[in-house]
Write the structure tokens for this entry.
Amino acid sequence: MRSLACRPGSSIAIFGGGPVGLAAVMGAVIQQCAVIILIEPIAARRQMAEALGATHVIDPTVESVGESIRAIRNDGVEFAFETSGRESVVEIALNSLGSHGLLGLVGVPPRVDSSLKINLAALITYGHRIHGIIEGDSDLDRFIPELIEHYKAGRFPLDKLVTMYPLDHINDAIAAQHRGECIKAVLVP
């Protein structure tokens, strides 16, 4: 909502349907994006994204992500938001952008020496921008109360992403998270 500052009517592709990606879907709805695409291999998370307001979902295990995005938006999306940190996914996200598109990166890479292969001519020709995002680039003293107001108004239903587990069931929570059965496991003492 802050870093990309999507305009009403704009398009965004969100790569990853974990808690951050699904929160981005909610943020895109609040920002009034016209096209909200979630790319996620787990069916339950794609369904959750649609329930939260995604206009399209893509299963990267059965569809070509780039072709699917271009079928939705022939010229590419204006914004892309990448949550996995995987180099191959970041490259696909960058290639999904239209002219003057902005890619926001929040995913932690698997290695500290992870790097990208970028076509510099395409980057310059299309005016693509890449932005590393730290803590949402937000003033938390103002942003947290704003999110709370969105939550109270039903526009940011964060509780739909949470599954509570008693602390003594921590192993069950971890296993459920790995199987994709829950989006955000929260341990309660």
Remarks:
- Strands lie at 11-15, 35-39, 56-58, 77-82, 97-105, 129-132, 162-166, 184-188.
- The mean pLDDT is 94.
- The longest helix spans residues 140-152.
